[in-house]
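Regression test case RT-17, inverse folding.

Input:
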């Protein structure tokens, strides 16, 4: 049991992170913890004019920061990673309070921030371009990567800090200031991150201009300022497909760049040769972890008909016995849904599934918290076919299970949804594995073998296709989206040959 009110713990945690924000602003924006449904703080929202001023400050900061050498920019991110390490427990607790995650998952999210910072520090010395063969004698051709400009970052409640950091760490080493609009459900984690970042800036010294990283606390109008401002070169937005449909065209209208990381409808396929015990554990974490509120959550499962009677009863048992509760007060593996609207959406989806002949196990509200908190038993739904709610993302712990008999058919069914983020196959058959990973296999940005759909590492590019938006963040060469590429051709001869053999003698 907690020995102090949640609001006191919130204030103490924020203070431990170094944030000085006033937490009880009369008439301010209320911050509700899904752990209990109580208001834990009230913060001053910013106005659209504040957001415009932040963008202007960032644009001025860019003029300085782009000229600071990459490895020196990396030094700031290295210091930030040190500060994150020192604040890991406090930041993780802030994530638990605001998003309802277990301490282990809260700390895991902060670890993702540390990991991407470490990655970005190395990257700060590797912002390479190519040298390219030219067709003209006495010429040299190369490409150079330059800082792009201000990066606007929009993030969702379910991962209140890691996606910001995937973007911010790369943007900063690439020479770009960042302006962050977090979800209005999780402003405190953002303010805490900003405070930790400012400690790194203080240690870094004068090379860091004012306004290198800023947070905008408030409603959608602030995101709109970022989306519409010609001074924001890149918008990286994480959230629902509905949000992406608004943001994408608005940014495209002004020829801005976008990285969209939107909804998923991630599936697993369990083949006859699978290691069933391993599959069971991977599915349990993928589908029930974070109370089904990850964009990578496993939402559909295709089980080969020959093993259906082995794995589905075992899954039912795991679902029936999983512990649900306040993860700051108990050892529960499954915390709360974010709010009542999420609960309603879950119940609606289950109702639709029932009407289509689905057999629902679990899914009911658990009385393990106050009336104002929404704890549910995760739902396992045996579906006769892939239809209705199975075709869309409901941000709650629902796993729809279906059988298959033919491998080609299951590949078709796997890809027959809007989302294209993450996917898994459980098999020890080499041919099935390779087909799943091939051009006619999973159409997702992430395709895994013998692990679940969630819990990606930062080293790979993160994102997906189709309604997931096509953006890639985090590792691999995702950094290129934060820079502009210039192709340079240099003539060191005394002649002026034209390309393609064109003659133009004057
Ligand atoms: C999200 O839910 O928006 O792969 C991000 C994962 C985490 C990131 C999830 N590393 O599950």
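Golden output:
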């Amino acid at each position: 049991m907690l020995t102090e009110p949640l609001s006191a713990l919130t204030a103490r945690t924020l203070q431990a992170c170094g944030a000085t924000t006033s937490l009880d602003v009369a008439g301010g924006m209320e911050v509700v913890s899904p752990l209990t449904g109580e208001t834990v703080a009230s913060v001053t929202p910013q106005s659209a004019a504040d957001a415009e001023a932040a963008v202007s400050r960032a644009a001025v900061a860019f003029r300085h920061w782009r000229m600071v050498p990459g490895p020196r920019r990396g030094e700031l991110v290295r210091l930030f990673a040190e500060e994150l390490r020192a604040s890991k427990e406090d930041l993780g607790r802030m994530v638990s309070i605001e998003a309802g995650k277990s301490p282990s998952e809260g700390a895991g999210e902060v670890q993702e921030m540390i990991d991407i910072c470490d990655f970005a520090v190395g990257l700060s010395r590797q912002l390479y371009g190519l040298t390219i063969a030219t067709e003209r004698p006495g010429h040299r051709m190369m490409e150079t990567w330059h800082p792009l400009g201000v990066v606007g970052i929009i993030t969702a409640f379910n991962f209140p800090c890691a996606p910001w950091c995937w973007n911010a760490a790369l943007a900063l080493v690439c020479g770009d200031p960042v302006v962050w609009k977090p979800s209005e459900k999780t402003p405190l984690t953002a303010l805490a991150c900003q405070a930790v970042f400012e400690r790194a800036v203080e240690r870094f010294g004068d090379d860091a201009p004012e306004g290198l990283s800023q947070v905008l606390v408030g409603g959608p109008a602030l995101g709109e300022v970022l989306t519409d401002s010609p001074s924001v070169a890149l918008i990286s937005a994480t959230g629902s497909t509905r949000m992406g449909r608004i943001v994408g065209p608005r940014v495209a209208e002004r020829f801005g760049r976008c990285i969209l990381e939107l909804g998923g409808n991630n599936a697993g396929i369990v083949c006859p040769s699978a290691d069933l015990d391993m599959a069971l554990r991977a599915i349990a974490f993928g589908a029930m972890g974070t109370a089904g509120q990850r964009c990578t959550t496993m939402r559909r499962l295709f089980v080969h008909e020959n093993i259906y009677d082995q794995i589905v009863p075992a899954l039912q048992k795991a679902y029936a016995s999983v512990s649900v509760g306040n993860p700051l007060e108990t050892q529960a593996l499954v915390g709360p849904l974010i709010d009542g609207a999420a609960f309603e959406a879950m119940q609606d989806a289950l109702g639709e599934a029932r009407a289509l002949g689905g057999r629902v196990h679990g899914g009911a509200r658990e009385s393990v918290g106050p009336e104002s908190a929404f704890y549910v038993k995760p739902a396992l739904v045996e579906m006769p076919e892939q239809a209705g709610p199975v075709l869309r993302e409901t941000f709650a712990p629902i796993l729809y299970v279906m059988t298959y008999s033919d491998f080609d058919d299951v590949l078709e069914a796997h890809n027959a949804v809007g989302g294209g983020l993450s996917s898994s196959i459980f098999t020890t058959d080499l041919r099935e594995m390779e087909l799943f990973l091939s051009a006619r296999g999973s159409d997702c940005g992430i395709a895994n073998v013998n692990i679940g759909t969630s819990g990606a590492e930062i080293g790979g590019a993160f994102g997906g296709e189709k309604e997931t938006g096509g953006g890639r963040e985090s590792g691999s060469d995702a950094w290129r989206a934060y820079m502009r590429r210039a192709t340079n051709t240099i003539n060191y001869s005394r002649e002026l040959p034209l390309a393609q053999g064109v003659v133009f003698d004057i």
